[in-house]
Amino acid sequence: MLTTVALNNIKTNQDMKYKCLTYGSGIGKTFLDEAAFPSEDPLSNFEFGQAYTNWLTLIKMVSEPPVSLGWCAHHKRMISDRGFVEWALAWHAHDRLLCSCFMQKPFILDVSSPAYEKQLERV
User: What burial class does residue 55 get, using C-beta atoms within 10 Å of its C-beta: 0-12 exposed, 13-18 middle, 19+ buried?
Assistant: First the structure.
């Protein structure tokens, strides 16, 4: 959702689909249907970088500095990996897992933690 093309589509409401909440405290509210967006898997390294830059901008705008600094450290670690091109799919998978966990329950990302290293090795 954070590629420039997707953000432009959201801004202009072009080809966007919405879902309506039918339960809970948000009943009747609408939200973007993620099915309207392409999968992250086929993103080129350029598109991934572009989306990631937008992710960092969003995190910086809505979170406290320690949270933002953790995501910036993760980004720096990814792009400074001399084998990034070779391991791009693993980095993408690792990042996707981190983002999914963060969206469910925000946390301060620590790139020096054993859990971070273990997840990266697993993917």
Answer: middle
